[in-house]
Amino acid sequence: MEIPEPKFKPGVNVVNGFNFAPQFEEKNILSALSYKVRDDDIFIATYPKCGTTWTQQILVLIFDDGEPLVNQHLYSRIPFIEAMGAQTAETIQRPGGALKTHLPFEMVPYNPKAKYLFILRNPKDACVSFYYHTKLFKEYKFDGDFHDYLLCWLRGEVECGKYDKHTLSWWQHRNDDNVLVLLYEDMKSNIRDSILKIAKFIGEEYETKIRNNPEILEKIVKHSDINFMRETTNKVYEQRSRAHNSVAEDSDYKFIRKGIVGDWKRHFTPEDNILFERWFKEAFKGTEVEIVNGLNFPTPFQDENIISALNYEAKDDDLFIATFPKCGTTWTQQILVLIFDNGEPSVDVLLSTRSPFLEPMGAKAAESMQKPGAIKTHLPFNVVPYNKNAKYIYVMRNPKDACVSFYYHTLRVKAHEFEGDFHDYMLTWLRGEVEGGKYDKHVLDWWNHKNDDNVLILLYEDMKTNIRDAILKIAKFIGEEYESKLIETPEVIEKIVKYSDFNFMQETRNKQFEYKQGGDQQPEVKTKKVDFFRKGIVGDWKNHFTEEENILFENWFHECFKGTEIESLWDKYKIFEYRNK
Questions:
Q1: DSSP-derived secondary structure for 359-391
Q2: Largest Cα–Cα distance in the chain?
Q3: If exposure means fewest CB atoms within 10 Å of the residue's CB, which of 261, 472, 493, 543 is most exposed?
């Protein structure tokens, strides 16, 4: 893809064909490249502005039981090897130190016994953050605006070159025993889980200490918070930068600026976004599932609709129904529309006018939705269109039944082109190589917001056990006037129960879905056989899992959710046998 030539370019120092920061001395770069890695070395690697300093802070806090450095630069414990040279690596504290690098995998000093932690950040936010970093330091001599910088960044004419090549060089080693790849956005969404993963990776003794001393974990969370680091770390970094005359005297020094997810929306023009999305698709094409902004979407979903969905600005009165796929979305849509309509079932076949599916239908469907209504989404919390005044209902289903249901859904939709058996699908599901990605990350992302005033989390199994109670909870959440109406007119709640019953939906909706399959609401989704509502029961997994598959699944579940409240959520339903022993 040809990227237009920018008017202005930042300075770089090219050594051995690689772009380094202009202020880095060649002797330090060369010594860094030839550094002989020790068996006990730990590297923090990133493309620039992808969470390096944050991860340095977390690592030092893990080493120091949650106590932050006082008036001390992070480089004293985790030096930047390309900037400072190999000699700094020789003198770091061991254990208790690490090395920072922005080198791609093929250039980084390597030892199969050393450990490498790589942080990935979505490229849009990385680009914006790098722009401000470049404007801050005089050595880059960059006088352009953001559009100029975006072009330079896409062309790889910046420090560290092309984001895609750098990222893919590390991504290809994500399954190596000595490499841990984390997503910046996942860290923002669930910092405690990320801290524990990092601790376990650098040494199980660190993880054990943190689990046995929860107050240490809370101190690490507190002292790695962006607000704390802005107040403390920025001051130390500013002193160093001004001592080296790297920043203008009148500059507002913000090495640590925002650190949020989605700041790109405040900088990209529609034209910038189209160009960026085309670059992203071409740079990362060739995956089995099309990836847009690092998320897995079904192949038939059109890019322009996905992009507009991600960019949709949630309104104050918006209501979202969110789930991991096959966890009760359509059932909850039916309940909501029945609440809105006093128990009368909708004649709208796909509920698309009252509850459009945001990702395949795009923002225009949400904009034109009949109200009162609700927007359906399978997006994780960290990328769902958010408004603090909007409301979000998230339905969780036990992962065993969710996996089985998703298997049949995948077989039903031709576009998935899946010809394997259930065992093949289960392995794919556990690896997160399906629409929606990894179940555990999706669920934890929403679960971390369970106490937010504008989020209601329901269990599918609880809804099956006591549908009337679930209906009243939903009604109260969306507006107390709806709850009052149901309490005052019990015949309405009985109609909602009747018309949200699975047998009713199986008899009516399946026929309507078959009639409308391939319709204009969700283009190109053609079904082999319409059985959209299949069973909807709790425990159908028992008819599919072999003993070996069950052991594998339970081990996965325990590993993903140990130490969290989610591990015990389904105990009363006896879903997980290891929990019943």
A1: HHH-HHHHHT--SS--EEE---TTTS---TTSE
A2: 81
A3: 543
Give the position of tokens 């019953």: 501
Count H helices and E strands in the chain, helices first: 27, 12
The tokens of 134 are what? 């470049």
Cβ within 8 Å of residue 569, ≥6 positions away = 396, 459
Cα–Cα nearest to 165, from 175, 179, 180, 155: 155
DSSP string, 241-306: HHHTT-B-TT----SS----S-GGGGT--HHHHHHHHHHHHHHT---SS-EETTEE--TTS-HHHH
CATH number assigned to the domain covering 13-244 = 3.40.50.300
Sorted by where each begins, the domain ranges of the chain are 13-244, 303-573
Active-site hit among 102, 166, 378, 544: 378
> Distance of CA 49 to CAs 8, 52, 127, 256, Å?
20, 7, 8, 10
Quick one: CATH architecture of 303-573?
Answer: 3-Layer(aba) Sandwich (3.40)
Question: Position 470: which residue type?
Answer: A
Alpha carbons 465 and 445: distance in angstroms, whole number: 25
Residue 486 exposure: Cα atoms within 13 Å on the Cβ side: 27
pLDDT for 303: 75
DSSP conformation class of 294: T
Report whether 255 contacts 241 (CB < 8 A): yes
Instruction: Reply yes or no on whether 378 is catalytic.
Output: yes
303-573 matches 13-244 in CATH topology: yes
CA distance 457 to 441: 16
Task: Return d(Cα 108, Cα 439) in angstroms, integer.
Answer: 33
Q: What torsion do the CA atoms of 14, 20, 25, 30 make, to the nearest 10 degrees?
A: -80
Strand ordering across the sheet containing 99-101: 99-101, 42-46, 115-120, 179-183
List residues bridging with 292 in a β-sheet: 295
Residue 207 token pair: 């993880």
CA gap 155, 153 in Å, rounded: 5
For range 425-445, the mean pLDDT: 92
**Cβ–Cβ under 8 Å, residues 184 and 51:** yes
For the segment 102-108, the average pLDDT, to the nearest whole number, is: 97
